[in-house]
């Protein structure tokens, strides 16, 4: 099962952060997003995770992404009392 993104557009206050972004991510792959500040990395991940709606384009995946996508943002205060190994176990099904 691959995740296919076609021409994803996301704007904030009229500025395109994602401008017709397209990619295909293979199942069971691990991906690293690199780019300068403001390049749209976090916005892309938030769109994939369903945390932020994208303005246009298509996203295809055979099942709800919320069931199989986990996101760890840079600032992670929700479980500050846990060790990283405990956080991983918490989110593992």
From TrEMBL:
<protein>
    <submittedName>
        <fullName>ATP-binding cassette domain-containing protein</fullName>
    </submittedName>
</protein>
<feature type="domain" description="ABC transporter">
    <location>
        <begin position="18"/>
        <end position="61"/>
    </location>
</feature>
<keyword id="KW-0547">Nucleotide-binding</keyword>
<dbReference type="Pfam" id="PF00005">
    <property type="entry name" value="ABC_tran"/>
</dbReference>
<dbReference type="InterPro" id="IPR027417">
    <property type="entry name" value="P-loop_NTPase"/>
</dbReference>
<keyword id="KW-0067">ATP-binding</keyword>
<dbReference type="GO" id="GO:0005524">
    <property type="term" value="F:ATP binding"/>
</dbReference>
<dbReference type="InterPro" id="IPR003439">
    <property type="entry name" value="ABC_transporter-like_ATP-bd"/>
</dbReference>
């Amino acid at each position: 099962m691959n995740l296919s993104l076609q021409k994803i557009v996301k704007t904030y206050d009229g500025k395109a952060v994602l401008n017709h972004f397209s990619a295909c991510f293979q199942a069971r792959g691990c991906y690293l997003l690199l780019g300068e500040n403001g390049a749209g990395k976090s916005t892309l991940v938030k769109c994939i995770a369903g945390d932020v709606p994208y303005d246009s384009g298509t996203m295809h995946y055979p099942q709800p992404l919320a069931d199989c996508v986990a996101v760890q943002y840079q600032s992670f205060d929700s479980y500050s009392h846990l060790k990283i190994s405990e956080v991983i176990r918490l989110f593992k099904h």
